[in-house]
Design goal:
The complex is a heterodimer of chains A (about 120) and B (about 280).
Chain A: H1 18-23, H2 25-33, H3 37-45, H4 47-53, H5 58-66, H6 69-74, H7 79-88, H8 93-101, H9 105-114
Helix pairs in contact in A: 2-7, 3-4, 8-9
Chain B: E1 3-10, H1 14-21, H2 31-34, H3 38-47, E2 51-56, E3 71-74, E4 78-81, E5 94-95, H4 98-110, E6 116-118, E7 122-123, H5 125-134, E8 145-151, H6 161-176, E9 183-189, H7 206-218, H8 220-224, H9 228-235, H10 242-251, E10 255-267, E11 270-280
Parallel strand pairs in B: 1-9, 2-8, 2-9, 3-6, 4-7
Antiparallel strand pairs in B: 1-11, 3-8, 4-5, 10-11
């Protein structure tokens, strides 16, 4: 059986496929739990215990601790679940975009506006 | 017989839900976006559809990675909206139409679309933001019933644009073989170009979006030739939501004409698109 050759990678983009979904399962499962307010509270009350309860590996724990979105993605995080993690700290997708691109939030917003010109 | 009277596409960005909750309709950032919707509402007011089929992607409210169906159809008497974790206040539930849902499910499976069927389904902002934009006042919804149709855009492999267009065509045949005099509108949500994740976050492709807004009216097959990987490259990781628009467009099997459209950059990280298509018999 032949398989199609994998397409050219897209710079700055992680395709969240089966391999990433397996890698990030524990992290994403924890973030999925943040749909519920009491789980968000439990995380804030004891972050280490909460991460341990979901079985995060060391890279995932370190990325959570650093609040670093690129590291969270590299550790298998999916942006839709990570958005719930960011929400705990009142961060929206523009804050998250700014962090990932190394810009200030104002610079990131200006870049978006410029895309329309 | 039931009839699909038209199709609507609209972005479903969560920030819109926040802006609605805070009534920022006259705010300079939001005004050019919100001002595009009254003509679509006027059309809905005039046509008064009985059922809205809302094609969207769940963003981690109803489905998790433990079970990730490619296509899911709601078959519930009502659909609850719930806390998504980042601040949108849950809205009151939306009435369903399980009889039409099961007719659609039976027809689609008979046409070889293997579905996940949901008698309980929490609907997230992908569903509620378009509903709030199109029917801002629940009191004016009358007896409108809803059917959610969810397409996986979370975990690759995603269904191809061509497959989604075919699903839409089968959906159109399913609705139009339903033995009740109903007016149905199909809403394709999400898009247009945006990317939330990675160093490429903030990617927007205006030319590609404008091309999509044009092609989807008269030449949707042109868009079905893209692969998912093409869409990620050209429209951003989440711009692949264009497949939801293609489900909607596939369902319009009559004579299609554009009644209204709008495109605005940026809303949050997204090129926001709006389209109202009439589907004449």
């Amino acid at each position: 059986m032949t398989r199609p050759s994998p397409p050219e990678p897209i710079p700055g983009t992680t395709i969240f496929d089966g391999a990433m979904a397996m890698k990030g399962y524990a992290l994403n499962k924890m973030c999925y739990s943040f749909n519920e307010a009491e789980n968000r509270k439990a995380f804030l009350a004891d972050e280490d215990a909460y991460c341990a309860r979901y079985g995060l590996n060391d890279a995932q724990k370190a990325a959570v601790k650093a609040r670093n979105v690129l590291q969270l993605i590299a550790a298998g995080g999916n942006i839709y679940y990570l958005a719930k993690f960011a929400g705990i700290f009142g961060l929206n997708v523009q804050d998250v975009g700014a962090q990932q691109t190394g810009m200030s939030v104002e610079e990131f917003k200006a870049k978006l506006v410029a895309a329309g010109v | 017989m039931a009839r699909i009277v038209g199709g609507i596409t609209t972005s479903h960005i969560p920030a819109i839900g926040n802006a609605i909750a805070r009534e920022m309709f006259e705010d300079p950032y939001w005004k050019p976006f919100f001002d595009a919707y009254p003509p679509v509402r006027a059309w809905l007011d005039e046509v008064k559809p009985d059922v809205a089929i809302v094609v969207y992607n769940d963003h981690g409210l109803n489905f998790f990675l433990d079970k990730m169906p490619t296509f899911s159809v709601g078959a519930a008497f009502e659909y609850q909206n719930k806390d998504e974790g980042w601040g949108l206040q849950p809205l009151p539930p939306y009435p369903g139409d399980p009889e039409l849902s099961w007719h659609i499910i039976n027809s689609l499976v008979a046409e070889d679309f293997d579905l996940c069927t949901c008698q309980e389904m929490a609907v997230d902002h992908g569903f509620t933001v378009p509903m709030s934009l199109l029917w801002p006042d629940r009191a004016t919804m009358g007896g409108l019933r809803t059917i959610p149709l969810v397409v996986n855009t979370v975990q690759h492999p995603l269904p191809s644009p061509a497959r989604c267009f075919k699903l839409g065509q089968a959906l159109g045949r399913a609705v139009e073989s339903f033995d009740k005099d109903l007016k149905v509108v199909v809403i394709g949500t999400g898009g247009l170009s945006h990317q939330l994740d990675g160093e490429r976050a903030g990617f927007i492709n205006k030319n590609f979006d404008l091309m999509c807004l044009e092609k989807i009216v008269d030449d949707p097959e042109a868009l079905t030739r893209y692969s998912i990987h093409d869409l990620v490259r050209l429209a951003g990781a989440q711009g692949a939501e264009l497949i939801l628009w293609l489900v909607m467009r596939g369902a319009l099997t009559g004579t299609v004409s554009k009644l209204h459209s709008n495109y605005h950059i940026p809303i949050s990280n997204t090129g926001a698109g709006l389209l109202l298509l009439e589907n004449a018999a």
